[in-house]
Predict the structure.
Amino acid sequence: MDIKDMLFDSDKLRRKQHTISQLYTLRSQYEPTWRMLSRYINPTRGRFEEDIQSTEGHRRDEYLIDPHPQKAVGKCAAGIHSGLTSPSRPWFELGLQDEEKANYIIPPWLGDTYEDKDGNIIPITDIIQTVEFMNDDITPESLDYWFTGCTKLEEVKNIPTSVKSMYRTFDGDEKLSSIPNLNNLKSLENMDYAFRGCHYLAKTPLLPNSVLSMNYTFEDNVFLSTITNIPNSVKYMNGSFMGDVSLVESPDLPDSVIEMSDIYNGCTSLKTTGTIPTNVTILDRAYMNTTNLQGTLYIDDLNATSYTDIFKNSGLNKELLVYSISHNYETVKDMLKTINSTSKIKLGTSIIVKDMTLKIGDKTSIKVYANIKNANYKFTSLTPTIATIDNNGNISALKTGVVSIKVEEDGGKTTNFTVTVTN
């Protein structure tokens, strides 16, 4: 890629701008000290007085009172260079504090300190207790890293509606217990690690249906017991609730999810979870160490590419029945090879169709959960004036009422489910 192409590559340009901005921020913190050292100790190094040119004849050592510090610095530098390293192996390199942060603008206050009345130096991150954006004119699109590691932060009163990314915004804020709902942030997309390690957070905020990524968002929230909602737009949920030992129940995951490795890994109190949706491809360790998992787990007709240790060390206390769709029966059977010898997880033997509610005029297809390879079914509506169903399981809602639909498998198994039709 030549220079011209690079200038018009918005992603590369943005990354370079972020890097330059970060370097300026880091430099500004040290420049006053550098100026002082240059002026009073070693005036031949550094040129901070921009209005003075070296060719104008100004003495650069006019502030020196005692030349001994200058000589000592010279000897120290020579000793470091010759005694610890060689010219071919530099003693240090300059760079950003964290390579991961290269594409982000880090708020300068994260490195600031405060001196108390006793002369103790305290990081600003150990002082902040409440966050509130007071000015409606503040419209940041990113809050990436803004309050990372604020160990005393307990309450967040509001978040600007302009925010699109909350990458690691409150990561490690272990005392944070009060946060507002975020469903008014209509452009919010990235929530990776946003509330990781917020131990006192008891429930998740209401999230908007714009979020795409929730990787490790609520990881290691030891008191989290309630999931308010999961956006129907989210695609990436790797480790979203990993290590949340107080979580008992999780709602259905939306069909948009495609990755969910480690999503419930270590949720030792978790009893029930929602259906594993159709589009998921990666499920590595998804239910690992969920020792209390029980009841029924439904797995849709997915094309999983990876599910290493999905049920390792899970379902040890009570029985968990796993159901597949006929087409992915072999995949689900293979998943159960990851269970421990003492696990109480096993394949269910019934036929199950979930009850549903439709509105007049709605059309939908049913999902039959049964661990039967290449099963064939016959469907019969017991009140076809309310809703009909064809041989492929397609339902049409005709008028208000409740209808029972019978499902018969060609091997002899049967079940019934209920359809409620409303206005």
